[in-house]
Amino acid sequence: MSAPIIRSLAELRALTRAWRQAGESIGVVPTMGALHEGHLSLVRAAKQGCDRVIVTLFVNPRQFNNPEDFAKYPRTELADAAILGPLAVDALFVPDAAEVYPAGHSTVVSVGDVSQPLEGAHRPGHFDGVATVVTLLFNMTQADRAYFGEKDWQQLQVVKRLVADLNMPIEIVPCPSVRDADGLALSSRNQRLSRKARAQAAALPNALFDAATAMAEGAYEPEVLAAARDTLAAAGFGEVEYLARCDSESLGPPIPGKPSRLLAAVWLDGVRLIDNVAVG
Ligand SMILES: Nc1ncnc2c1ncn2[C@@H]1O[C@H](COP(=O)(O)OP(=O)(O)OP(=O)(O)O)[C@@H](O)[C@H]1O
Ligand SMILES: CC(C)(CO)[C@@H](O)C(=O)[O-]
Ligand code: BAL
After folding, report:
1. Which residue of 58, 59, 126 sits with most ligand 3 atoms within 8 Å of its CB, as the best mutation to test the pocket?
2. Rounded to whole angstroms, what are the CA distances from 119 to 157, 178, 244, 272?
């Protein structure tokens, strides 16, 4: 059986009110659909941690800085509802744009410093769109816990900052990146890779893991980063938008004694891939 699809906020509210009155906890897994094992790992964590689980599916127009990317984003609602069936989620919330942004909607939520570099610099307005829709989804679902993937590391840090700064009564639960057998992080956008490019794509995680190991062993960072760029170019990758070691939490420059992370956004075969790994 497929997951029960709920489209209106009124219907969702009726459910969440009943669950709250029964003293049940609510978990939310926000997604843009085209579900894969990465998303399902979040759903499984939510099922373990909460009495009730809502998966949201909304391709949020306000976080796309590139109209072509928005137009091409995969939309597979029926398959998504079917794949969630065996996990027995309580609701698949699929609002339309007018339910999320009714006429007259004019509030934008903007998170500070952590949203500025990397994705923020290369996708102007992206994190304002994410922070705004995540705030709306948290309010709409009344969730106690929300599950986010480490694959979108900067997004996770932005959402943590948002929740801390606005004292939102919700716990953010990070979930590790799920990777294919060759190491490529699962992503809806991987579907757009040609067969040849898909075979080349594992060079990205390999280069990141190798570089992170070298850095942890004390190798000279500029040389390590230059070697990683050479490896990617040799593997057929195009533009490297960023490849940088950052403080894991603030995404600013690394801070001695604090965890750091290596993050990248790279083009391959007309597809923009992102990934990140811990250093040390
Ligand atoms: N491989 C993965 N492992 C763990 N979590 C993931 C993975 N891929 C996506 N997620 C998480 O699922 C949630 C929804 O992400 P989203 O719907 O954008 O999927 P996606 O595959 O990342 O798509 P795309 O990268 O093309 O936008 C986010 O919290 C994201 O971090
Ligand atoms: C969190 C999110 C569902 C908000 O639209 C989106 O950015 C995503 O899929 O990671
Ligand atoms: N997976 C993060 C959402 C986005 O790329 O727009």
Report:
1. 126
2. 12, 20, 12, 11
Pair 38, 24: CB distance under 8 Å: no
Predicted confidence at residue 116, as pLDDT, reads: 98
Q: Which of 20, 41, 16 is nearest to 31 (CA)?
A: 41
The single-letter DSSP state of residue 90 is S
Starting from the edge strand earliest in sequence, which strands make up the sheet with 26-31, in order?
5-6, 91-93, 52-57, 26-31, 145-149, 171-175
**Does ipTM exceed 0.95?**
yes
User: What is residue 177's predicted lDDT score, i.e. its pLDDT?
Assistant: 99
Which atom of ligand 2 is closest in space to residue 56's alpha carbon? Answer: 3
Question: What percentage of the chain carries pLDDT values higher than 70?
Answer: 100
Phi then psi for 257, rounded to 5 degrees?
85, -5
Mean pLDDT across 141-153: 99
Query: In the chain, what are the domains?
Result: 5-175 (3.40.50.620), 188-279 (3.30.1300.10)
Q: Is the CB of 152 under 6 A from ligand 3?
A: yes
Q: Which atom of ligand 3 is nearest to the CA of 129?
A: 6
What pTM does this model have?
A: 0.98
Active site (annotated) includes residue 39: yes
Residues β-bridged to residue 54: 28, 91
Query: Stretch 58-75: mean pLDDT, rounded?
Result: 95
What separation in Å is there between the alpha carbon of 161 and the centre of ligand 1?
19
